[in-house]
Amino acid sequence: MSSLKKSQRSLRAWTKQKWRTKSGKKSAETGERYLPEKAIKALSSKEYAESTRKKREDTKKGKQHSKQSKKTARKTRAYRKLGGPALTYNQKYHKDTIEQGKVMINEKGQPVTANVIGIEYNNKIYNVPSYNRQGGFYSEDEARKNFKEDIEKGLIKGYDKKFDGPIEKHPANVAARLEHQMMDIDGEKISPESIAYNLLKVK
To answer: At what angle do helices 70-81 and 45-60 cross, to 10 degrees?
Structure first.
């Protein structure tokens, strides 16, 4: 019980990291690298420019995520973790959806940024986004195909299928719930500019 409360405290603290671009504009508009404010200040202008250039190139290639150089990653890693847990693959996807201005508001008025589901691959369970950022969702087969490369690269954590206990306590389900807590907290701050699809307006 105490560990869950600790996680909740960390998730609340995580929202205070002030993630932004160097210019203060939306990443979807400028293509800039999105980082915690202190991480941006820790980088030189040249380092931030190089990191942003890499992100723009990867975005043009249609890549979901753009890795930083090892040197830049080392300098920003501490600030990504400061005040909360390191971002998981799904949490990064969630933040990228907001920055790209592709959030969907569902029929209940709730923001959708990732909609994590569990899929099976090579006898393991992987939590992956099912929201396709186009106002719809991937099927399990589509999600497996879409995220296969990142799974094989080790970017997405896998959990053993075998588990001796109630399904709600399976490590994959516990991890998904903690991820959604952060997304719910962060989702309260989504601006109208980040919303691309609003199902409440569809009749």
So the answer is: 100
What six digits make up the tokens of 135? 């106002």
Annotate 78-114 with b (16+ C-beta within 10 A) or e (fewer): ebbeebbbebbbbbbbbbbbbbbbbbbbeeeeebbbb
- pLDDT one-digit tens code per residue, 151-165: 999 999 999 988 888
Beta carbons of 32 and 25 less than 8 angstroms apart: yes
Closest CA to 137 of 129, 126, 145: 129
CA distances to 48, 68, 87, 178, 191 from 73, rounded to whole Å, are: 11, 6, 13, 24, 28
Q: Is the pLDDT of residue 132 over 90?
A: yes
pLDDT digits (tens, 9 = 90+) for 50-89: 999 988 888 787 765 677 888 887 777 766 554 445 578 9
Q: Among 135-144, 175-184, 190-199, which range has the highest average pLDDT?
A: 135-144
Q: How far is Cα 87 from Cα 117, in angstroms, rounded to an integer? A: 17
Distances from the Cα of 108 to the Cα of 105, 112, 182, angstroms:
8, 11, 19
